Amino acid sequence: MPREEAEFGLSFYNSNTCWIDLDKILAAFGLTREDILSSPLHDGVGEGNKIASAIRAMASKMPTYITLKEVKKRWGQGQEDVFPVTQFEKLWVDMTALPEVDSRFVVVPRLRGQQLKDQAQLDGWLRDGSAAYVESLCDWQ
After folding, report:
1. What's the pTM value of the predicted model, to 2 decimals?
2. Which of 1, 108, 119, 126 is the most buried (most CB within 10 A)?
3. Candidate from 9-13, 72-76, 116-120 with smallest mean pLDDT
4. Which has the closest alpha carbon to 15: 119, 107, 136?
């Protein structure tokens, strides 16, 4: 978001929360629970590792997002340079482009989906009713 405060005006919010069916996501990778549980931790990430190979195969199918950014380098005494930077990203949380992964979007109220990114946001979170909403979901003893 261009301005952090803009998200507080939204009726709904993209929380980017993922709920997965473990066996289905493993199947999309060509793996099973047994593959995960039987893989020794010292197996490494070499070509012979079934899990590493499955991740590489899935990574080759994942969409690549290209982000253009301007990065400032400050040299001191009021001097700075701006460098154009190209960033290539594979966002593992977004598998919506993969036909073998069943993805859905669910709209949630902002109170449910809001993410706090800084401790300084806690006061506002308490005042706007978000904390009370989350507290109402829990059974405290």
Report:
1. 0.56
2. 108
3. 9-13
4. 107
